[in-house]
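Data card: per-record layout.
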Amino acid sequence: MKPASVITMPPISQLPPMREAAARVVDFFEQLAPSSLERLDAIYALDAYFKDPFNEVRGLAGILQVFSHMYGALEQPRFVVTGCIVDGRACFLTWDFQFRFKRFDTQALQTVRGGSHLKFNASGLLEFHRDYWDAAEELYEKLPVVGALMRWLKQRTRQ
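The structure for this 159-residue chain is written out next.
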């Protein structure tokens, strides 16, 4: 029988700087505020790609527009990163996105749980950012009128 191979990790001082880049991204998103949007170029490459269930853009101007819209549509949006895995230039974050709706009577704190697949360039800037979350369960079901319809449809499919 062949012996199991042993994986040895290099000393921390020899690890690529991508763990530092991931920590910088986590800190940026957890401290995100309208005033920090002017520093997107410290996190994203100029031609970075961003996609979530509602947006697909390339470049800093498009990414800035996505986050600016978020602050226009929601009250007190904030990210709480709950997990981070770094493998080479790739990173996967899990997070809770907390906010309140501006346009609806409810002032209840809402939480969307999701994940982000990130890829860094050689300089440690994000060149790829893809968010994964279930818009139906995590958002539509929380809307006053649409939510009732979504919950009814969900029950019907389970029967």
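Known properties of this structure: The chain has one domain: 14-133. Residues 14-133 form a domain with the Nuclear Transport Factor 2; Chain: A, fold (CATH 3.10.450.50).

See the next section for split statistics.
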